[in-house]
Write a structure and sequence with these properties.
With 960 residues, this protein is an alpha+beta fold. The chain contains ten helices and 52 strands. A hairpin with a 5-residue loop joins strand 5 and strand 6. Helix 6 packs antiparallel against helix 7 and helix 8 runs antiparallel to helix 9. InterPro entries: Cellobiose_DH-like_cyt (IPR015920), Cu2_ascorb_mOase-like_C (IPR014784), Cu2_ascorb_mOase_N (IPR000323), Cu2_ascorb_mOase_N_sf (IPR036939), Cu2_monoox_C (IPR024548), Cyt_b561/ferric_Rdtase_TM (IPR006593), DOH_DOMON (IPR045266), DOMON_domain (IPR005018).
Length: 960
């Protein structure tokens, strides 16, 4: 989404002038606890909070928060597994999950799992500290358990904090099966729950308010242009009154091409614009200058309506603003023609005074264009600064932030707003991990105080690993944005605070980067030089979910920083870069490999692929009591060989202890090797790992032969988080430890989880399109032709179409197997049927050729004929049905299911009709031949007529 008018507004100071996945709106109505909760099998009196997570009250959540850890109880009317997730956004991505079920021996099993995306959540490495089971039950159609969770997560990406003083997203899934797998449709949900007493503005739900009024802003109908990106603007007059207050809002159903809605307040609107009221929207956005600069509200994918808490209201009226501009962004990548839309937004308001007037402050990159993201990176950051000269304009006692809406596009991953006060960073205003484009919402805050003179740094982090070209900031959905809209009280005149790039020109009073402050009383923003844009403070690095652990050792100077990564539950790696090495760009670094003795060998490597990587293998020594470290390299996918040029040594603490191999390693030239280099200051350093389980190697030979790996993966390390300490072994006396995790085991072993949600969706769509093309178009067409037409060469036309259809199906099946393997769907009926059809249809051309030759010889159907014909018919119909199963498995939108069902149904009717017609035609021809055989026609003429019809008649028996 974008405030498109800012690009025009800022153009006078510069020299340079949200794909379509539209999620259905869902109400977040908080279901109140049922009066009758006697079915819950544990003691409910121990908790001080309770809410139903579903509308029927069949999934109940209980909680009691405390300082260090909190206790949660969850119960569902289901007889299988029950999963409860702590989520940042209400999405699966990044969710820290508690799962309970019974195993085959009737024992209750409790697991801590983590979801890296919309894939099967993996078991987290920490099964002891983060969550601890207190009791579990499963009987009489009810599953329930109580567990304790740390409020402050350890520095693992598989954990999440508990928002004990504010609002927390909970997601859940239930089943009647005890095998943990994907839930069936409808057996899941999400709820934004207020655990603490922190103040907020947005309830992220719609509710009625007594003694209020409604009004709706309606954009006049527009025919959406065929351009990929369109912004339309329509002006509207607000309800009359000196001072009214918005209390709630609800976006209404609109076109699926709608990317976002934004409503701007028009302060001091020039008279020449007022004629726009009631007129058709102006969709010539490149030539239109939006004069309205105050942010009122917006809708983006995933959002529903919201209602302000009692006592809060956004003021409008003659004392504030009387007009608003509605901006609609349409994204039409398929360039559809003739699509019409009438966008609208409904508001609840009152003309009575409220206790607290709230305003909205816009942070982020208002310039929109002129910046680029580096491609091919798992995380790349973009930051803007709001300077003290602007925040000094706040009231003397400051403002209180109560909610923030972070916005990016499809590549967005993390976002934050840092607070710098008196030159020091304090607790951030907001941090959001695991951003999901389709799950956007207004994040409630615990009343964060902001003071005049504060410096605010807004940072967005993106995944550009699937991009090969720099990613621009811009208006189109395929470009990127970085915004943070902060709701606060008391409302004041400051609307936006950020920085802009003015370029370099003799005509500019200011060149380069400048600060920007926009107030409601100003016709244009105030742009000025600021020393705070070049302050010595450095932005936090793009470090994913890494975080420092508090130092428990006092009085230690020059402390070492160690990164610890466990890409798999029992395989871990650590890294330290001494301060001197990082400063000079070369020198010693230290790393550790650790794994159970059940592994034959384990390797850590620098690089992005096996070929030419700088590898370090660990395996057991000849006496079985120590480990051998073998630096190696390989020029391709072959057994790597010892690299004598590597300067490495094993350090104290290496060996085999408690059935675990550990290698503490010093490397003196790991910044550069024969086939590559690594910057010791790289925030996105690429590493690989591999291993093979089996018998110990037990060799001191650094070139000992090894078996091929049975597991491998890759991750990135932010070396700035591993920098510190002197040139000593950090693993025997590390004072400060910073811990992070690389992708989970599943992600390391399968590339599906590394793809962005957008790319995954494209794979799914391509699979569905190709499979539908094969079974709903090509295969039926080839069969229909031989039933309804007759021409020379029809047999070969039929065969060619069916072979082409099979080729298309092979492509679809390849994508499907890749997807199913990545999300553990290979056991689903859709996948099983698809693979069966893939195997059966492979033999169909060969059986068809045999059938055709035999038929021409004997002039009647044989076993080959029936095998080819009826297997093909059943296969095509089954393939059409399987397409519907695929849509169900993918939880496709209802519109897609309807379109596919109608089209497949029509083709199916035509296909079956052609079969019936062909069989009737064949029966008539058989009767005619039988009659002809008893007539006066000579045998030679009868045979000649049958042979002459083989171009069509024989081909009639060559169809599926």
């Amino acid at each position: 989404m974008l405030l498109a008018h800012y690009a025009t507004l800022l153009s006078r100071f510069t020299q340079s002038s949200l794909p379509l996945i539209f999620l259905a709106l869902a109400a977040f109505a908080v279901a109140q606890s049922s009066i009758d909760l006697d079915w819950v099998p544990f003691d409910r009196e121990q908790f001080n909070g309770n809410v139903a997570l579903d509308e029927k009250g069949n999934v109940q959540l209980f909680w009691k928060t405390a300082n260090e850890s909190s206790t949660f109880g969850v119960a569902s009317r289901s007889s299988g597994y029950l999963a409860l997730g702590f989520s940042e956004t209400g999405a699966m991505t990044g969710a820290d999950m508690a799962v309970g079920y019974k195993d085959q021996d009737d024992n209750f099993v409790f697991e801590n799992r983590h979801a890296m995306g919309f894939v099967t959540p993996q078991v987290s490495p920490d099964q002891k500290n983060n969550m601890q089971l207190q009791e579990g039950h499963q009987a009489d159609g009810v599953t329930a358990f109580i567990f304790e969770k740390q409020n402050k997560a350890d520095c693992l990406q598989t954990q999440a904090d508990v928002a004990k003083d504010a609002w927390q997203w909970f997601i859940y899934a239930i089943s009647d099966e005890n095998t943990f797998a994907q839930h069936t449709p409808g057996n899941m949900g999400k709820e934004y729950v207020k655990l603490g007493t922190g103040k907020s503005v947005s309830l992220n739900q719609i509710r009625d308010i007594d003694d209020t009024k409604n009004f709706t802003i309606v954009q006049p109908e527009v025919t959406i242009p065929t351009a990929v990106t369109t912004y339309c603007y329509s002006l509207h007059k607000m309800p009359a009154g000196d001072k009214n207050y918005l209390l709630g809002e609800r976006p209404n159903e609109s076109s699926e091409l709608l990317h976002h809605l934004v409503l701007y307040a028009c302060y001091g609107l020039p008279d020449e614009y007022k004629d726009m009221v009631g007129k058709e929207p102006n969709c010539d956005y490149e030539a239109f200058s939006n004069p309205c600069n105050g942010f009122v509200t917006e809708w983006a994918p995933g959002m529903t309506g919201r209602t302000f808490e009692p006592g809060y209201g956004k003021p409008f009226g003659t004392e504030q603003y009387e007009y608003v501009m509605l901006e609609t962004h349409y994204n039409n990548p398929e360039r559809l023609e003739g699509v019409k839309d009438t966008a609208s937004y409904t508001f609840i308001y009152t003309d009575k005074p409220v206790d607290t007037e709230i305003g909205t402050l816009t942070l982020g990159d208002l310039q929109v264009e002129g910046w680029f993201l580096e491609p091919g990176k798992l995380l790349v950051a973009h930051s803007t600064v709001c300077t003290p000269e602007c925040t000094d304009r706040w009231p003397s006692d400051g403002i209180t932030a109560v909610s923030v809406f972070h916005h990016m596009h499809y590549r967005g991953r993390n976002a934050r707003v840092q607070i710098i006060r008196d030159g020091k960073e304090i607790t951030p205003l907001s941090s959001l991990r695991d951003f999901e484009y389709g799950y956007q919402f207004s994040k409630s805050l615990d009343s964060v105080k902001l003071l005049p003179g504060d410096k605010l740094i807004t940072t967005c982090e993106y995944d550009t690993s699937n991009d090969t070209e720099p990613v621009p900031g811009g208006l189109p959905s395929e470009d990127e944005m970085c915004f943070a809209w902060v709701d606060y009280y008391p409302a004041n005149s400051v609307l936006a605070c950020t920085q802009v790039d003015l370029g370099n020109s003799a005509e500019n009073e200011i060149n380069g980067t400048a600060a920007l402050c926009l107030e409601s009383s100003a016709a244009s923003p105030d742009v000025y030089n600021s020393p705070f844009l070049t302050a010595s403070f450095q932005n936090l690095s793009a470090s994913g979910n890494t975080c420092p652990v508090e130092n428990t050792t006092s009085g230690v100077s020059n402390q070492a920083a160690v990164l610890n990564t466990c890409p798999e539950t029992d395989v871990c790696f650590s890294l330290n870069v001494p301060q001197r090495s990082a400063s000079s760009g070369s020198g010693d670094i230290y790393f550790q490999l650790s794994a159970p003795v059940t592994y034959s060998w384990v390797a850590l490597a620098q690089g992005t692929m096996m070929s030419n990587a700088n590898m370090f293998l660990m395996y057991s020594s000849a006496d079985g009591k120590n480990v051998t470290l073998s630096p190696r390299t390989a020029s391709g996918h072959m057994m790597p060989t010892h690299n004598e040029a590597t300067d490495v040594s094993l350090l104290d603490g290496s060996g085999i202890f408690n059935d675990r191999m550990t290698a503490n390693v010093r490397c003196g030239n790991c910044d550069s090797w024969d086939t590559g280099t690594m910057s010791l200051q790289d925030s996105n350093s690429n590493w690989l790992y591999a291993h093979s389980q089996g018998s110990p190697i037990n060799s001191d030979d650094r070139n000992a032969p090894i078996l091929q790996h049975d597991g491998e993966g890759g991750f990135q390390w932010d070396l700035s988080r591993a920098t510190g300490g002197s040139d000593t072994n950090p693993f025997t006396d590390a004072a400060t430890i910073t811990t992070t995790t690389s992708p989970s085991a599943a992600e390391g072993q399968h590339s599906w989880a590394r793809l962005s949600t957008q790319t995954q969706m494209r794979f799914v769509q391509a699979h569905g399109a190709l499979a539908s093309l094969a079974f709903v178009a090509i295969f039926p067409l080839g069969a229909i032709l031989v039933r309804l037409t007759s021409f020379r060469g029809l047999v070969w036309t039929h065969g060619g179409l069916q072979v082409f259809g099979y080729a298309v199906f092979v492509a679809a099946a390849g994508l499907g197997i890749f997807i199913a393997n990545g999300v553990a769907y290979l056991q689903e009926p859709h996948a099983i049927i698809g693979m069966i059809l893939l195997g059966i249809f492979f033999f169909m051309p060969f059986i068809g050729i045999i059938h055709h030759k035999v038929y021409k010889k004997v002039q009647q159907r044989t076993l080959w004929s029936y095998g080819h014909i009826f297997t093909g018919r059943i296969g095509v119909i089954l393939g059409m049905i399987n397409g519907g199963l695929g849509l169900q498995l993918a939880h496709a939108r209802r519109s897609y299911v309807i379109v596919y069902g109608v089209f497949a149904g029509l083709i199916g009717v035509v296909y079956i009709g052609a079969i019936v017609f062909g069989e009737c035609k064949r029966a008539r021809r058989s009767s005619q031949n039988a009659a002809a055989s008893s007539s006066v026609y000579p045998e030679s003429k009868r045979l000649k007529r049958d042979d002459s019809g083989s171009g069509s008649g024989a081909s009639q028996e060559t169809t599926i």
